[in-house]
Amino acid sequence: MARNAERPVIFAFRPVARSAVALLAAGLFAAACQDAPEASPKAPSPKPPAPSSGTAKPPATTPSSGSSGSTSSQPITFKTSGDATFDAWRKTFAAKAAAAGRKRATIISVLDGLTPLDQQVQIAAFEQPEFTKAIWDYVKSAASPTRVSNGQQKMADNAAVFSAIEQTYATPREIVAAIWGMESSYGAFIGDYDAARAIATQAAENNRRSFYEGELIAMMQLIDDGSTTRDEFRKASWAGAVGQTQFMPSTFLANGQDFDKDGKKDIWNDAGDALATAANYLTNSGWKKGEPWGVETTIPQGFDYSLGDGSKKTVAQWKSLGLSPAGATSFGADNLMAELFLPAGSYGPAFLLYDNFNVIKKYNNADSYALSVGLLADKIAGRPDLSRPWPTNITLPNAQQVTDLQNGLNKLGYNVGAADGVVGRNTRAGLQKFQKDHGLMADGFPTTEMVAKVVDAAK
Ligand SMILES: [Ca+2]
Protein backbone atom coordinates (compact mmCIF):
# COMPACT_ATOMS: atom_id res chain seq x y z
CA MET A 1 0.00 0.00 0.00
CA ALA A 2 1.02 3.55 -0.34
CA ARG A 3 2.56 4.92 2.77
CA ASN A 4 1.28 8.27 1.96
CA ALA A 5 4.16 10.30 3.14
CA GLU A 6 5.30 13.34 1.33
CA ARG A 7 8.46 12.16 -0.15
CA PRO A 8 10.70 13.12 -2.94
CA VAL A 9 11.88 10.75 -5.54
CA ILE A 10 15.56 10.33 -5.92
CA PHE A 11 15.68 11.60 -9.43
CA ALA A 12 12.53 13.41 -10.21
CA PHE A 13 14.51 15.82 -12.34
CA ARG A 14 12.28 18.74 -11.82
CA PRO A 15 12.70 22.33 -10.82
CA VAL A 16 13.18 23.19 -7.26
CA ALA A 17 10.42 25.45 -6.21
CA ARG A 18 7.71 22.86 -6.38
CA SER A 19 9.82 20.09 -5.08
CA ALA A 20 8.56 17.57 -2.62
CA VAL A 21 11.64 18.38 -0.67
CA ALA A 22 10.22 21.61 0.61
CA LEU A 23 7.39 19.97 2.43
CA LEU A 24 9.36 16.98 3.45
CA ALA A 25 11.93 19.26 4.90
CA ALA A 26 9.39 20.68 7.26
CA GLY A 27 9.14 17.30 8.89
CA LEU A 28 12.56 15.90 8.42
CA PHE A 29 14.98 18.69 8.36
CA ALA A 30 15.19 21.96 10.14
CA ALA A 31 13.95 24.10 7.32
CA ALA A 32 13.08 23.90 3.69
CA CYS A 33 15.90 25.16 1.60
CA GLN A 34 15.07 27.32 -1.37
CA ASP A 35 17.88 25.87 -3.32
CA ALA A 36 17.08 22.36 -2.30
CA PRO A 37 17.39 20.09 -5.25
CA GLU A 38 14.66 17.92 -6.49
CA ALA A 39 16.45 14.80 -5.61
CA SER A 40 16.84 14.00 -2.00
CA PRO A 41 19.38 11.56 -0.78
CA LYS A 42 18.15 8.70 1.25
CA ALA A 43 19.66 10.26 4.28
CA PRO A 44 19.12 8.63 7.62
CA SER A 45 16.68 10.86 9.37
CA PRO A 46 16.54 11.66 13.01
CA LYS A 47 12.79 11.76 12.86
CA PRO A 48 10.22 10.05 10.77
CA PRO A 49 8.60 12.04 8.03
CA ALA A 50 5.52 14.06 8.02
CA PRO A 51 2.51 12.15 6.86
CA SER A 52 1.13 13.30 3.63
CA SER A 53 -2.48 13.40 2.87
CA GLY A 54 -3.36 16.94 3.44
CA THR A 55 -0.20 17.92 5.17
CA ALA A 56 -0.15 20.77 2.74
CA LYS A 57 -3.19 21.96 4.53
CA PRO A 58 -3.14 23.44 7.96
CA PRO A 59 -4.26 21.22 10.76
CA ALA A 60 -7.92 21.44 11.50
CA THR A 61 -8.57 23.83 14.28
CA THR A 62 -12.26 24.21 13.78
CA PRO A 63 -13.61 25.47 17.03
CA SER A 64 -16.27 23.36 18.53
CA SER A 65 -19.63 24.74 19.23
CA GLY A 66 -20.75 21.73 21.16
CA SER A 67 -20.38 21.09 24.79
CA SER A 68 -17.43 19.20 26.05
CA GLY A 69 -19.68 16.44 27.22
CA SER A 70 -17.63 16.46 30.32
CA THR A 71 -19.07 16.10 33.73
CA SER A 72 -15.77 16.82 35.33
CA SER A 73 -13.41 19.71 35.18
CA GLN A 74 -10.71 17.61 36.77
CA PRO A 75 -7.63 17.11 34.64
CA ILE A 76 -7.65 13.80 32.82
CA THR A 77 -5.07 11.39 34.11
CA PHE A 78 -3.63 8.46 32.23
CA LYS A 79 -1.85 5.30 33.15
CA THR A 80 1.84 5.78 32.48
CA SER A 81 3.15 4.69 29.11
CA GLY A 82 6.56 4.06 30.61
CA ASP A 83 7.90 7.01 28.64
CA ALA A 84 8.17 10.21 30.67
CA THR A 85 8.37 12.50 27.63
CA PHE A 86 5.26 10.96 26.14
CA ASP A 87 3.37 11.08 29.43
CA ALA A 88 4.19 14.73 29.99
CA TRP A 89 3.12 15.65 26.47
CA ARG A 90 -0.11 13.65 26.77
CA LYS A 91 -1.12 15.32 30.01
CA THR A 92 -0.64 18.78 28.55
CA PHE A 93 -2.28 17.89 25.26
CA ALA A 94 -5.35 16.36 26.93
CA ALA A 95 -5.99 19.71 28.60
CA LYS A 96 -5.59 21.47 25.24
CA ALA A 97 -8.04 19.06 23.61
CA ALA A 98 -10.56 19.69 26.37
CA ALA A 99 -10.09 23.43 25.96
CA ALA A 100 -10.70 22.97 22.22
CA GLY A 101 -14.08 21.51 23.07
CA ARG A 102 -13.43 17.84 22.55
CA LYS A 103 -15.51 15.49 24.65
CA ARG A 104 -13.82 14.11 27.71
CA ALA A 105 -14.79 10.54 26.84
CA THR A 106 -13.35 10.98 23.35
CA ILE A 107 -10.10 12.42 24.64
CA ILE A 108 -9.77 9.45 26.95
CA SER A 109 -10.65 6.94 24.23
CA VAL A 110 -8.07 8.41 21.87
CA LEU A 111 -5.22 8.86 24.32
CA ASP A 112 -5.62 6.33 27.11
CA GLY A 113 -3.49 3.24 26.93
CA LEU A 114 -1.23 4.67 24.23
CA THR A 115 2.47 4.00 24.24
CA PRO A 116 4.80 5.68 21.80
CA LEU A 117 5.59 3.75 18.67
CA ASP A 118 9.15 2.70 18.27
CA GLN A 119 10.54 5.54 16.19
CA GLN A 120 12.64 3.00 14.36
CA VAL A 121 9.48 1.43 13.04
CA GLN A 122 8.39 4.69 11.51
CA ILE A 123 11.87 5.43 10.25
CA ALA A 124 12.00 2.00 8.65
CA ALA A 125 8.67 2.66 7.01
CA PHE A 126 10.12 5.88 5.70
CA GLU A 127 12.83 3.99 3.87
CA GLN A 128 10.53 3.56 0.98
CA PRO A 129 11.21 2.33 -2.48
CA GLU A 130 10.72 5.68 -4.13
CA PHE A 131 13.73 7.01 -2.30
CA THR A 132 16.07 4.54 -3.86
CA LYS A 133 14.56 3.90 -7.24
CA ALA A 134 14.73 5.93 -10.36
CA ILE A 135 11.41 7.55 -11.06
CA TRP A 136 10.70 5.14 -13.90
CA ASP A 137 11.24 2.12 -11.70
CA TYR A 138 8.71 3.53 -9.28
CA VAL A 139 6.27 4.36 -12.05
CA LYS A 140 6.60 0.97 -13.70
CA SER A 141 5.73 -0.92 -10.54
CA ALA A 142 3.09 1.58 -9.45
CA ALA A 143 1.25 1.25 -12.76
CA SER A 144 1.84 -2.46 -13.17
CA PRO A 145 -0.34 -4.53 -15.49
CA THR A 146 -1.99 -6.18 -12.48
CA ARG A 147 -2.88 -2.85 -10.94
CA VAL A 148 -4.22 -1.68 -14.28
CA SER A 149 -6.44 -4.71 -14.80
CA ASN A 150 -7.60 -4.64 -11.17
CA GLY A 151 -8.44 -0.98 -11.60
CA GLN A 152 -10.47 -1.65 -14.71
CA GLN A 153 -12.32 -4.42 -12.92
CA LYS A 154 -12.96 -2.27 -9.85
CA MET A 155 -14.16 0.59 -11.98
CA ALA A 156 -16.58 -1.76 -13.75
CA ASP A 157 -17.75 -3.31 -10.47
CA ASN A 158 -18.47 0.13 -9.04
CA ALA A 159 -19.68 1.77 -12.22
CA ALA A 160 -22.74 3.36 -10.64
CA VAL A 161 -20.68 4.85 -7.81
CA PHE A 162 -18.07 6.18 -10.24
CA SER A 163 -20.74 7.71 -12.46
CA ALA A 164 -22.36 9.44 -9.51
CA ILE A 165 -18.99 10.68 -8.29
CA GLU A 166 -18.12 11.99 -11.72
CA GLN A 167 -21.39 13.93 -11.80
CA THR A 168 -20.80 15.39 -8.36
CA TYR A 169 -17.12 16.27 -8.47
CA ALA A 170 -14.69 17.64 -11.02
CA THR A 171 -12.29 14.69 -11.06
CA PRO A 172 -12.65 11.99 -13.72
CA ARG A 173 -13.26 8.45 -12.61
CA GLU A 174 -9.98 7.01 -13.79
CA ILE A 175 -8.01 9.46 -11.65
CA VAL A 176 -10.07 8.57 -8.59
CA ALA A 177 -9.64 4.88 -9.39
CA ALA A 178 -5.88 5.30 -9.79
CA ILE A 179 -5.60 7.03 -6.41
CA TRP A 180 -7.59 4.21 -4.87
CA GLY A 181 -5.20 1.71 -6.45
CA MET A 182 -2.12 3.59 -5.33
CA GLU A 183 -3.29 4.22 -1.80
CA SER A 184 -4.71 0.86 -0.80
CA SER A 185 -4.64 -1.47 -3.80
CA TYR A 186 -8.34 -0.72 -4.22
CA GLY A 187 -9.15 -1.17 -0.57
CA ALA A 188 -7.16 -4.34 -0.03
CA PHE A 189 -4.55 -2.81 2.27
CA ILE A 190 -5.53 -0.04 4.63
CA GLY A 191 -3.01 -0.63 7.37
CA ASP A 192 -3.22 -1.87 10.93
CA TYR A 193 -1.45 0.82 12.89
CA ASP A 194 -3.39 2.80 15.45
CA ALA A 195 -3.54 6.29 13.95
CA ALA A 196 -3.78 7.80 17.42
CA ARG A 197 -0.61 6.03 18.49
CA ALA A 198 1.28 6.91 15.31
CA ILE A 199 0.29 10.56 15.43
CA ALA A 200 0.68 10.93 19.20
CA THR A 201 4.21 9.57 18.93
CA GLN A 202 4.99 12.33 16.49
CA ALA A 203 3.22 14.97 18.57
CA ALA A 204 5.25 13.99 21.62
CA GLU A 205 8.59 13.80 19.88
CA ASN A 206 8.49 15.73 16.65
CA ASN A 207 9.30 19.38 16.22
CA ARG A 208 6.06 19.84 14.31
CA ARG A 209 4.06 19.25 17.45
CA SER A 210 1.25 21.68 16.65
CA PHE A 211 0.62 19.97 13.32
CA TYR A 212 0.30 16.54 14.89
CA GLU A 213 -1.76 17.83 17.77
CA GLY A 214 -4.11 19.35 15.19
CA GLU A 215 -4.44 15.91 13.60
CA LEU A 216 -5.40 14.39 16.94
CA ILE A 217 -7.93 17.13 17.59
CA ALA A 218 -9.39 16.49 14.13
CA MET A 219 -9.58 12.79 14.91
CA MET A 220 -11.44 13.56 18.12
CA GLN A 221 -13.80 15.86 16.28
CA LEU A 222 -14.65 13.14 13.76
CA ILE A 223 -15.46 10.83 16.65
CA ASP A 224 -17.37 13.53 18.54
CA ASP A 225 -19.55 14.41 15.58
CA GLY A 226 -20.41 10.78 14.86
CA SER A 227 -18.68 10.65 11.47
CA THR A 228 -16.77 7.60 12.62
CA THR A 229 -15.56 5.75 15.68
CA ARG A 230 -12.40 5.45 17.71
CA ASP A 231 -12.00 1.85 16.59
CA GLU A 232 -11.84 2.74 12.91
CA PHE A 233 -8.76 4.81 13.63
CA ARG A 234 -7.02 1.64 14.77
CA LYS A 235 -6.74 0.74 11.09
CA ALA A 236 -4.22 3.23 9.73
CA SER A 237 -0.93 3.51 7.93
CA TRP A 238 2.27 3.88 9.92
CA ALA A 239 1.93 7.62 9.42
CA GLY A 240 -1.63 7.74 10.69
CA ALA A 241 -3.44 8.00 7.34
CA VAL A 242 -6.73 6.16 7.22
CA GLY A 243 -9.18 4.51 4.89
CA GLN A 244 -9.18 3.16 1.37
CA THR A 245 -8.01 6.50 0.05
CA GLN A 246 -5.68 7.26 2.98
CA PHE A 247 -6.44 10.52 4.65
CA MET A 248 -4.88 12.20 7.60
CA PRO A 249 -7.61 13.13 10.09
CA SER A 250 -7.62 16.88 9.36
CA THR A 251 -7.96 16.30 5.61
CA PHE A 252 -10.65 13.72 6.28
CA LEU A 253 -12.44 16.19 8.53
CA ALA A 254 -12.29 18.93 5.90
CA ASN A 255 -13.19 16.77 2.89
CA GLY A 256 -14.90 13.63 4.17
CA GLN A 257 -18.07 12.58 2.38
CA ASP A 258 -20.93 10.38 3.44
CA PHE A 259 -21.71 9.43 -0.12
CA ASP A 260 -24.34 6.79 0.62
CA LYS A 261 -25.96 9.03 3.24
CA ASP A 262 -26.02 6.39 5.93
CA GLY A 263 -24.81 8.85 8.55
CA LYS A 264 -21.21 7.64 8.63
CA LYS A 265 -18.18 8.78 6.71
CA ASP A 266 -16.92 5.25 6.38
CA ILE A 267 -13.83 5.55 4.25
CA TRP A 268 -12.55 2.27 5.67
CA ASN A 269 -15.35 -0.06 4.61
CA ASP A 270 -17.43 1.85 2.11
CA ALA A 271 -15.73 2.37 -1.23
CA GLY A 272 -18.24 5.04 -2.19
CA ASP A 273 -17.47 7.14 0.88
CA ALA A 274 -13.73 6.67 0.32
CA LEU A 275 -13.84 7.49 -3.38
CA ALA A 276 -16.16 10.45 -2.94
CA THR A 277 -13.89 11.81 -0.23
CA ALA A 278 -10.90 11.50 -2.56
CA ALA A 279 -12.80 13.12 -5.44
CA ASN A 280 -13.99 15.88 -3.15
CA TYR A 281 -10.47 16.50 -1.92
CA LEU A 282 -9.09 16.71 -5.46
CA THR A 283 -11.97 18.97 -6.48
CA ASN A 284 -11.41 21.22 -3.47
CA SER A 285 -7.71 21.24 -4.34
CA GLY A 286 -8.51 22.81 -7.68
CA TRP A 287 -9.01 20.02 -10.21
CA LYS A 288 -9.90 21.56 -13.55
CA LYS A 289 -12.63 19.51 -15.12
CA GLY A 290 -11.95 18.40 -18.64
CA GLU A 291 -8.25 19.25 -18.57
CA PRO A 292 -5.56 16.58 -18.71
CA TRP A 293 -3.03 15.94 -15.94
CA GLY A 294 -0.32 15.52 -18.55
CA VAL A 295 0.26 14.38 -22.09
CA GLU A 296 3.29 12.58 -23.43
CA THR A 297 5.10 14.71 -25.98
CA THR A 298 7.54 14.14 -28.76
CA ILE A 299 10.85 15.97 -28.62
CA PRO A 300 12.19 17.18 -31.95
CA GLN A 301 15.80 16.88 -33.05
CA GLY A 302 17.97 19.69 -31.78
CA PHE A 303 15.48 20.65 -29.09
CA ASP A 304 16.74 22.87 -26.30
CA TYR A 305 16.34 20.66 -23.24
CA SER A 306 16.85 23.60 -20.94
CA LEU A 307 13.21 24.46 -21.66
CA GLY A 308 12.33 21.58 -19.36
CA ASP A 309 13.21 23.72 -16.39
CA GLY A 310 9.72 24.07 -14.96
CA SER A 311 8.78 27.20 -16.86
CA LYS A 312 5.22 27.25 -18.07
CA LYS A 313 4.18 28.09 -21.58
CA THR A 314 0.92 27.85 -23.46
CA VAL A 315 0.20 24.75 -25.46
CA ALA A 316 0.40 26.94 -28.55
CA GLN A 317 3.92 28.03 -27.60
CA TRP A 318 5.02 24.47 -27.01
CA LYS A 319 3.64 23.44 -30.37
CA SER A 320 5.54 26.28 -32.02
CA LEU A 321 8.70 24.89 -30.45
CA GLY A 322 8.09 21.63 -32.26
CA LEU A 323 6.36 19.52 -29.62
CA SER A 324 3.44 17.33 -30.60
CA PRO A 325 1.35 14.77 -28.69
CA ALA A 326 3.08 11.41 -28.70
CA GLY A 327 0.19 9.09 -28.00
CA ALA A 328 -2.82 11.21 -27.23
CA THR A 329 -4.64 12.93 -30.03
CA SER A 330 -4.29 16.36 -28.52
CA PHE A 331 -2.49 18.53 -25.99
CA GLY A 332 -5.81 20.19 -25.21
CA ALA A 333 -6.73 23.78 -25.82
CA ASP A 334 -3.99 26.04 -27.16
CA ASN A 335 -4.32 28.44 -24.25
CA LEU A 336 -3.74 25.85 -21.51
CA MET A 337 -0.57 26.43 -19.51
CA ALA A 338 1.83 23.53 -19.27
CA GLU A 339 5.39 22.79 -18.33
CA LEU A 340 7.75 20.35 -19.95
CA PHE A 341 8.75 17.46 -17.69
CA LEU A 342 11.76 15.37 -18.65
CA PRO A 343 11.88 12.68 -15.97
CA ALA A 344 14.48 10.69 -17.89
CA GLY A 345 16.27 13.54 -19.63
CA SER A 346 16.72 12.68 -23.29
CA TYR A 347 16.61 8.96 -22.49
CA GLY A 348 12.89 8.38 -22.14
CA PRO A 349 9.39 9.76 -22.41
CA ALA A 350 8.74 13.46 -21.97
CA PHE A 351 5.52 15.08 -20.81
CA LEU A 352 3.63 18.30 -20.84
CA LEU A 353 2.20 18.73 -17.37
CA TYR A 354 -0.88 20.80 -16.64
CA ASP A 355 -2.27 22.31 -13.47
CA ASN A 356 -4.06 19.08 -12.61
CA PHE A 357 -0.70 17.38 -12.10
CA ASN A 358 -0.12 19.68 -9.16
CA VAL A 359 -3.56 18.84 -7.84
CA ILE A 360 -2.56 15.18 -7.71
CA LYS A 361 0.50 16.28 -5.77
CA LYS A 362 -1.76 17.68 -3.07
CA TYR A 363 -2.39 14.05 -2.32
CA ASN A 364 1.24 13.19 -2.13
CA ASN A 365 3.82 15.75 -2.98
CA ALA A 366 6.14 13.62 -5.05
CA ASP A 367 6.51 13.77 -8.81
CA SER A 368 6.92 10.01 -8.85
CA TYR A 369 3.56 9.61 -7.15
CA ALA A 370 1.68 12.07 -9.34
CA LEU A 371 3.20 10.67 -12.52
CA SER A 372 2.22 7.17 -11.40
CA VAL A 373 -1.35 8.22 -10.71
CA GLY A 374 -1.58 9.93 -14.09
CA LEU A 375 -0.12 7.04 -16.05
CA LEU A 376 -2.11 4.45 -14.12
CA ALA A 377 -5.28 6.45 -14.77
CA ASP A 378 -4.50 6.65 -18.48
CA LYS A 379 -4.00 2.89 -18.64
CA ILE A 380 -7.15 2.18 -16.64
CA ALA A 381 -9.02 4.39 -19.09
CA GLY A 382 -7.55 2.41 -21.98
CA ARG A 383 -5.45 5.20 -23.45
CA PRO A 384 -2.41 4.32 -25.56
CA ASP A 385 0.82 3.22 -23.91
CA LEU A 386 3.79 5.54 -23.80
CA SER A 387 5.40 5.93 -27.19
CA ARG A 388 8.89 5.76 -25.76
CA PRO A 389 10.10 3.19 -23.27
CA TRP A 390 11.68 4.12 -19.99
CA PRO A 391 15.44 3.73 -20.04
CA THR A 392 16.85 0.42 -18.98
CA ASN A 393 20.48 0.95 -19.84
CA ILE A 394 21.50 3.90 -17.75
CA THR A 395 22.46 4.13 -14.12
CA LEU A 396 21.95 7.12 -11.91
CA PRO A 397 24.82 8.44 -9.83
CA ASN A 398 24.83 8.07 -6.08
CA ALA A 399 25.41 11.02 -3.77
CA GLN A 400 29.19 10.66 -3.87
CA GLN A 401 29.18 10.54 -7.65
CA VAL A 402 26.98 13.62 -7.78
CA THR A 403 29.43 15.37 -5.46
CA ASP A 404 32.23 14.36 -7.82
CA LEU A 405 30.20 15.72 -10.72
CA GLN A 406 29.64 19.03 -8.95
CA ASN A 407 33.28 19.36 -7.97
CA GLY A 408 34.29 18.58 -11.54
CA LEU A 409 31.89 21.13 -13.02
CA ASN A 410 33.12 23.75 -10.55
CA LYS A 411 36.72 23.00 -11.42
CA LEU A 412 35.89 23.40 -15.08
CA GLY A 413 34.38 26.80 -14.40
CA TYR A 414 30.68 25.98 -14.63
CA ASN A 415 30.03 27.29 -11.14
CA VAL A 416 27.31 25.00 -9.91
CA GLY A 417 27.65 26.04 -6.28
CA ALA A 418 28.69 24.06 -3.25
CA ALA A 419 28.91 20.34 -3.93
CA ASP A 420 26.14 18.78 -1.87
CA GLY A 421 25.62 15.48 -3.62
CA VAL A 422 22.13 16.23 -4.82
CA VAL A 423 21.13 17.24 -8.31
CA GLY A 424 19.42 20.60 -8.43
CA ARG A 425 18.81 23.26 -10.98
CA ASN A 426 22.38 24.63 -10.86
CA THR A 427 23.91 21.23 -11.36
CA ARG A 428 21.69 20.51 -14.33
CA ALA A 429 22.37 23.91 -15.88
CA GLY A 430 26.12 23.51 -15.40
CA LEU A 431 26.07 20.04 -16.85
CA GLN A 432 24.08 21.28 -19.79
CA LYS A 433 26.73 23.91 -20.57
CA PHE A 434 29.43 21.27 -20.27
CA GLN A 435 27.51 19.03 -22.67
CA LYS A 436 27.07 21.84 -25.19
CA ASP A 437 30.75 22.72 -25.00
CA HIS A 438 31.66 19.09 -25.65
CA GLY A 439 29.23 18.48 -28.48
CA LEU A 440 27.06 16.17 -26.39
CA MET A 441 23.29 15.95 -26.24
CA ALA A 442 22.66 18.82 -23.87
CA ASP A 443 19.90 17.46 -21.66
CA GLY A 444 21.61 18.21 -18.35
CA PHE A 445 20.76 14.71 -17.20
CA PRO A 446 23.45 13.18 -15.00
CA THR A 447 23.92 9.52 -15.77
CA THR A 448 26.96 7.80 -14.26
CA GLU A 449 28.43 7.82 -17.75
CA MET A 450 28.04 11.58 -17.94
CA VAL A 451 29.54 11.98 -14.47
CA ALA A 452 32.57 10.03 -15.62
CA LYS A 453 32.96 12.29 -18.65
CA VAL A 454 32.93 15.39 -16.45
CA VAL A 455 35.28 13.91 -13.88
CA ASP A 456 37.67 12.91 -16.66
CA ALA A 457 37.58 16.35 -18.21
CA ALA A 458 38.26 17.96 -14.84
CA LYS A 459 41.35 15.85 -14.18
CA1 LIG B 1 -21.57 6.53 4.46
Could you please describe the fold and organization of this structure?
53% of the residues are buried. The chain has a domain at 399-457. Strands 1-4-3-2 form a four-stranded antiparallel β-sheet. The model is unreliable at 1-70 (pLDDT under 50). Helices cover 44% and strands 3% of the residues. With 459 residues, it is mainly alpha-helical. Bound molecules: calcium ion. Residues 258, 260, 262, 264, 266, 270, 273 line the site of calcium ion.
Q: What's the order of the H and E elements?
A: HHHHHHHHHHHHHEEHEEHHHHH
- Widest β-sheet, arrangement of strands: 1-4-3-2
| Structural class by secondary-structure content | mainly alpha
Biggest beta sheet attributes:
4 strands, antiparallel
Measure the end-to-end span: 47 Å
E-strand count: 4
As residue ranges, the low-confidence spans are 1-70
Rg calculated over all Cα atoms: 23 Å
Tally of separate helices: 19
Helical percentage: 40-55%
Ligands and ions found: calcium ion
Shape: globular
User: How big a fraction of the residues is strand?
Assistant: under 5%
Write down the overall mean pLDDT: 84
